[in-house]
Amino acid sequence: MNTSALAQTGRFRARRVARGSVTEGAARAGLAARGVIYLLVGALALQIAFGDTKEQADRGGALAAISQKPFGAVLLWALGIGLVGMALWRLSEVCFGSVGQDGRSARKRLLAAVRCAFYAFVAYSVLSFAASRDQSGGSSDQQSRDATARALEIPAGQWLVAAAGIAVVAAGGWIGVRAVLRKYHDKLRLGQMGPRTRRLVDVTGVAGGAARGLVFAVAGVFAVRAAIDYEPDKAKGLDDTLRTFADTPVGPWLLVCVAAGLVLFGVFSFAMARWRRV
């Protein structure tokens, strides 16, 4: 067997492992872990809407809430490991492509790489929290302000922050539009769902995806504003972004709707963990 044949055989075996049951299990565990985080963030945002302003409606607040429950440490480690699985699944998509006709395209691989990096960071933060049980890194709001301030200090930092904010706005719009158009149908095993289940998944997918996209877009707007005004304190993390929905003319009810949408997205993530094609 020549070197070319050996290399081809090695690639085939690696691709088979990437598409095998281990990677599938990692993907489904990661989607379920994402669902837990969004459920908790949405629940914390609902508490804020109804007057409880003590908790942070972000990932740190969600982890703190888990840590206070019975077997909280075990749950935190399980959540972190699940998110590691999500990152590894996205890495396999970078290397071997994802499901779908254009799954091996450069665009899909680039998106997978971005998602891999994002979930690797989230997994690291969750596992760090599980190991230390404190929030020494600060809230998402403080982290956003600190990162913006550091970025503004470098050459062309104002342009970089503005570009990043615009990218986040665009990502939010992309997430919301795809949810409303039900693009997730392409990735679901619809044949395994009954009509009622499919309707429930559509409710959670459309409403949850729209709410998630809206939160991303508004956070991006604040980043652009911070760049234009050269004021890092105007950048907002997830918690402050959610609280701004309560400061609109309709009062806390807009925050209630967005928070409920985030809860629905958490439920939708569980549906994806069950029926998504990996």
From TrEMBL:
Spans traversing the lipid bilayer: 31-50, 70-89, 110-131, 159-181, 201-228, 253-273
Keyword DNA repair: no
Record has Ribonucleoprotein as a keyword: no
Pfam families hit by this protein: DUF1206 (PF06724)
Keywords: Membrane, Transmembrane, Transmembrane helix
Domain DUF1206 stretches: 29-95, 113-182, 207-276
Full protein name: DUF1206 domain-containing protein
